[in-house]
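User: My collaborator sent over this chain with a note saying "see what the structure looks like." That's all I know about it. Can you take a look?
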Amino acid sequence: MERIRRSTSLLRATAESVCKLFTLLAALFLALLPAGQLAAQSPAVVTLVKAGRLLDPRTGKVLAPAAVLVENGKIKEVGAPAQVQPHAPAGARTIDLGRATLLPGLIDVTPTCCST
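Assistant: Without extra context I'll predict from the sequence alone. Here is the result:
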């Protein structure tokens, strides 16, 4: 019985972590959405996103720590923060996701994944 309680507790903690990750990804998506809409009207909108890790879906490798430079809603550069940050222009918006993991290509996240 104790084993079942521990397993249930672990599953609950994992579900909470996944929910937090999806929330961070949704925030990132919403932060980058206006950049794509305003690209035709205004000068380049540049956002630097920093995170604890980035999972490369093509290779399966993890980059830690990671930074992504986004210009007009399109990824311009990916790498270590020390490598990418110097290429961000002055005044670029910075989003620091702390220890979160970025998952490029993850789309169509729905809030039903977070229901308990």
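A starting point for your reply to your collaborator: The mean pLDDT is 77.
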